[in-house]
User: Fold this.
Amino acid sequence: MKFEHIELADKELKFEALRYAAESIGFIHAGQWDYQRVTFDYKIVNQGDIYYLRVPAYAIKGDIPKDDTIVKLMTPMLGKHYYPHGVEYEGETFPQPIIEKCNKKLELLLKNLDTN
Assistant:
């Protein structure tokens, strides 16, 4: 599921600002990068199911994880984890409380980014 209504996609900022804003509200970076792409994940456990709210970005100037690298955010996504296959983002039905929690978390991220 994509969260296109939250105005995060196409926002450009320093990697340092993104990392600070995301990690301060519970997203993890966990070394998930390849110099050009990065994701910040927020894990949600609900009734034994595991969901991940993922905020992807890519470098447009510099290399990740340097603080002064300029990154461009992409559309946030929600996926459900299936062991051992991974995370599925499409064709899933997500519980409404999970969707609401993701909306609140993304709005908080947007607010944090706007104050930096």
Observations:
- The longest helix spans residues 96-115.
